[in-house]
Structure formats: C-alpha cells, structure tokens
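[Q] Does anyone have a clean structure-token version of this?
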Amino acid sequence: MIWLVLAISVVALIAVVMKRKEEEKRKFFESKGIKANKPRFFLITMYKLIMKQMGIVDMVESLYYEYPEDDKVVGFWDGNTPIIMMKDPDVIKNFCVKEFEHFQDHRDFLSEKMDPLFGNSLFVLRDQKWRDMRATLSPAFTGSKMRLMCDLIVEIGVQMAEFLQKEAKEKGPQTYEMKQLFSRVSNDVIATCAFGINVDSLKHKSNDFYLTAKILSDFDSVGKMLRMTFYRFFPKFSNVIGLKFNPDKESNFFRSLVTDAMKYREQQNIIRPDMIHLLMEAKKGNLNHAKTEKDTAGFATVDESSAQWKKSNRNWSETEIVAQCFLFLLAGFETVSSALSFTAYEICVNPDVQERLYEEIKTVNENLQGQRINYETLQKMKYLDMVISESLRKYPPATVTDRECNKDITLDLFEGLSYEFKKKYSMWIPIYSLHRDPKYFPNPEKFDPERFSDENKSSINPNVYVPFGVGPRNCVGSRFALMELKTLIYYMMLNFSLEVTEKTQIPLKFGKSFSSLASESGIHIKLRPRN
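[A] Here you go.
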C-alpha cells in the first residue's frame, strides 16, 4: 500500500512541477507583449508529425494564421527553447541580414558523431567553421563554374527524353508519377555532377546508387524522425550511446565513390568539369570568388556576393570534403525532384501556360539548329524563368527555415518592442506562408507566371520571396538548382505534351510530410510525344 501512495505522490509532484513550468512559459511571452501558442503546442505537434496526423505545412500555417495578420511576430516553445516566428518582411531583413553576425547558424539538430558526413555538411556546420566552408565553396557555385557543368545536365535531359520516347513508341503514351520519375532523373544528375559517375536510373531501376540515395534522403521515415527528436531533447546522451542517423553501409558507399574518384584523378591527372573537380580545387585553395561576375541563373538566384566571403586558409579533411558531395546528394534527390514534379503539375493543369512555354522552347530549339541547349541560352529564356520562379513561390523547397542566436543580446524586434535574446534562442522564417500570403502575392493559390514578368517582378518584396533562403546563409547551390530545373523542363516540354489523366488530383493536396512538401496521392501525368 505504501508503494502505491508513494507512486501517486510522485506523479502528483511531477504534475505540479509541469503545471508550474507551463505557467512560467506562458507568462514569458505574455510579459514581453508577444502573442504565443500554449507551451504544450510543440510536443503535441511533434507527436502528430511523427504519427503522420499532420504535415509540416499544417504546422507552419497554424502558427502563421493563429493571430491577426498585423502581428509581426508570434511566439511558441520547442521544449525549453523559446522560438519567435517572424511574419513581417522588415523584421526578417533586420535579423537575417543586418543582424546576421548574431544569427548566423541553424539550430543544432544533428551532431557530427551521429553522422560524420551530414554533420560536416555546409547546412549543419556552425560558427567559424561554417564561414570557412562557405568561403571555400562559394567560388565553386558561381555562374562561370555552372557553365562547365551544364553539358553534363543536358546529357541527362537528352537521356531522359530518349528513354521516354522509346517507351511511348513501344507501349503508347504512358502515365507517370512525376515525383518518382524525376527522382530517378535528378539522381542521375547528382551521380554525374557530384560523384563523377554515369548511371541510368530510368533504364536500370535497381542500380546501387539510386537505391542507396533513396534510403539516405528519406527524412520522413519514423526512425529518422524519432532519432532527430531524441537528439533535440537529449543531445549529450545521444552522443554517449552512439546514436546513428544514417546506416554506415549506405554512408560508406558514397564516401568510397568520392574518395576513390579523387585518388584516381590525382594519379591519372584527369580533369572532369564536375563537383568533385571543383572540390579538389577548393581543397587546394585554387578557387577564387569572381567578385565582378554579375551572372544570374534567374530571378530566384540568391546574391552570393552580399556575404563578402574572405578566402579561408583552413585545411579540410577528406571527410569534410566528401560531406559536401553528400549534401549535394540529399538536396538534389529530394528538393529538386519535388520542384520538378510540382512544376510539371502546374504546366499540365494550366494549358495556356503550357502552350506559351512550348512556343518559347520550340523557337529556341529551332534557333539552335540541331545543337543542344547551353547555359547562355537557358538564361535568355524569359518565360521559362517566369514559370520556374512562380513554381518556387507556390512550392518552395523549404517550408520553413530557422536561425539561432549565438550570444546574449537585446534587440528591437520592431519599433516599440525590444526582446532579450539569450544564446540558443531561435527564430523561424515561415517561407511557405510568406509565399502564399495574399498581402504579398494577390490570389496566391493561382499559378501566375506573370508575377515575374519584367513589368511586375520589381514589385515583389525580396524579403518575402525567398525560395533559396534568407540573407548570407542562403542556399549556395541556387544557380545549380535553377540550371537543372530549367534544363530538364526544357527537354520534357520539347518532346512531350503534358496531359491530365483520371488519376491527376485537381486541386493538388499535400500529404502529411515532415521534411518537405509532398503531394497526397502522387502527381500522375500522361506524356504524349510531340510530332
């Protein structure tokens, strides 16, 4: 009997402590004049995300619209960490650009011990090490370097078109789930551009590169979500017990691809215009940022020169260099294939857009007189850029991004409201919600490339159109991503008309994805060969 009484007493004590903690958290934001969600919000939300009862879009939208639109910030708790969601473009600019020195890093959600490759990638690196790696990689992603890789991507675009043409000839016009199709094609782009190998994942569906990439890029698996959640609450204990994020077998597969290729090229003095070559040059310190270069891959291109990177003299290890190829794999496999599938969907269900885009592509192809598309010609295709820009508005690669305070400081969130940021306090920038806010993009659910015409694009606030991130910590690979998107859409549209089928979901609904935007039931489109 005494043990039962003791157990009840302990449970009651825990309940009292939790109640008191919750009240303290509630008063934290209230005392600062910031409207906030209940402290239990994030725990409940994480449970629903893991159990696939809601998606990341649902979470971000619920925070963004819970309070009146004139509220510039909203607060919530992630465990014991207070988070500020920034809804106002001026506030976003102030903290992600002007106050970048204090808000440089993403939150720590994965350690190097949990995953040596992902943990050493540019996305995860922090503090001075991130600055040094960014300075090292930045020259590798300028327009002049992208020109060198364009032919490699064009080769994959031609390969894709030839495979699909052959299937149509043998079986008649086929219907494809576009995410699956483009996952294979973008996988081939990453294989050739980042790892220096040629695979044909449409023809050889079970090749090791594709199957391994699929495992490593699946951030929506329950296992990975639980590991990330566990590390967030118990980081030190996770490192002590040796918690792993990715399986060693798959990680070592890609490590060997890069290291073997680098050694072979060094021995044989082989130069191939791909990412491995650029990283080898970066490791030697042979790449310099061309500050006078004004190249742009399109309206969505981020301004790399704004960061004023200084050349780093740090000596990078083999693992640190391989990690950047690994990041290339993760970003390219998931985000690019998603962007391609959403773009194909909007082209398919908007016949006027499809017709105008095809006319531009057909004219360009005729002017090339049998030659393949090239980097310079891609950049001159205005309507293609408008279509891609609008697709990235409606379906941004990242639903939300974050920044973490690196030292205690008191700053004005906006005029009349100061806020004491402690080290590790964080902020969220709700990219998806900003891109679909009618204040900034009238009739936001409409797919309208005209928003990005020469006449209209100057009216777009650059602090709310941020498909590749905000401020100096933006996506270093924006030029490459845009080049890939444009090349593959070019060859898809040049060879096929995109048609709605009975399986095409209209309007499109999102599934309950944790990591990124994903359609509820796939994007099914019939590809009919053009004459």
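[Q] Thanks! Anything notable?
[A] DSSP finds 18 helices and nine strands in the chain.
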